[in-house]
């Protein structure tokens, strides 16, 4: 008679991928960034990792994600959603228990990013220049989140989450360019966005510009039809 295998204890953790748009220090171009936390204990001591940690008994999942963001960056973005669950058996080989991580992503508006704080052992990095290898399977999580965001901007208005309530179409285009890491044709972009019905003219114009001020738009996400064909700038 064979014995049953020993029961493996399991820990539930929450990690958060926090995306923000910031100028690249070399080019000045708007770029997609995320914060990482340097681990101060084993396993993976001194490696960079995503903000997060074990789920406490008194926390729900969303609360744990918001707590990690507040503790590491001081940010409380409006846009927070559950991304995926990562639970490979060997993702935490040195841990005494199996760890399953529920991953959230947050999109930080540019006006929200002004309130970010620099906590100890926390640093922001462009998403295409993340210093690896990261702790655990966080390289995989970051790649998954970036690929998911770059895909989602082509079939949903999620890019609006990076902008304030009112914005110029050129500002929206720069968000797409930052997320996709490519220059887009301005005329084609404007035509496609206006045809989707996901933005509406506010009747106001941007102030403080040197030339003819551009029109201001706001999100109209009630549109159910969305498809963006990416055409790069010539």
Automatic annotation (TrEMBL):
Pfam families per record: NUDIX, WHD_NrtR
Highest taxon above the source species: Bacteria
Compositional bias annotation for Polar residues = 220-234
Nudix hydrolase domain: from which residue to which, for each copy?
36-141
Which residues does the annotated region (Disordered) include?
A: 201-234
Question: InterPro entries under this entry?
Answer: NUDIX_hydrolase-like_dom_sf (IPR015797), NUDIX_hydrolase_dom (IPR000086), WH-like_DNA-bd_sf (IPR036388), WH_DNA-bd_sf (IPR036390), WHD_NrtR (IPR054105)
Task: Please list the residue ranges annotated as the NrtR DNA-binding winged helix domain.
Answer: 162-218
PANTHER family (UniProt xref): ADP-RIBOSE PYROPHOSPHATASE, SLR1690 PROTEIN
Task: Write the protein's name.
Answer: NUDIX domain-containing protein
Write down the species. Nesterenkonia alkaliphila
Upper taxonomic lineage = Bacteria, Bacillati, Actinomycetota, Actinomycetes, Micrococcales
């Amino acid at each position: 008679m064979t014995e049953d295998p020993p029961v493996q204890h399991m820990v539930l953790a929450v990690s958060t991928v926090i995306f923000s748009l910031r100028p690249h220090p070399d080019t000045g171009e708007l770029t997609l960034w995320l914060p990482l936390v340097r681990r101060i204990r084993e396993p993976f001591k001194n490696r960079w990792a995503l903000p997060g940690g074990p789920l406490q008994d008194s926390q729900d999942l969303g609360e744990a994600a918001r707590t990690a963001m507040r503790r590491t960056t001081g940010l409380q973005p409006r846009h927070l959603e559950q991304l995926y669950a990562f639970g490979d058996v060997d993702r935490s080989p040195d841990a005494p228990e199996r760890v399953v991580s529920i991953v959230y992503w947050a999109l930080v508006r540019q006006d929200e990013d002004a309130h970010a704080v620099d906590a100890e052992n926390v640093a922001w990095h462009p998403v295409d220049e993340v210093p690896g290898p990261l702790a655990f399977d966080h390289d995989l999580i970051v790649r998954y989140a970036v690929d998911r965001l770059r895909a989602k901007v082509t079939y949903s208005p999620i890019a609006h989450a990076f902008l304030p309530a009112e914005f110029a179409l050129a500002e929206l285009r720069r968000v797409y360019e930052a997320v996709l890491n490519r220059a887009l044709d301005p005329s084609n972009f404007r035509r496609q966005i206006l045809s989707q019905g996901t933005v509406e003219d506010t009747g106001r114009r941007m102030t403080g510009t040197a030339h003819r001020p551009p029109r201001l738009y706001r999100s109209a996400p009630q549109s159910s039809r969305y498809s963006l064909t990416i055409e790069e700038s010539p």
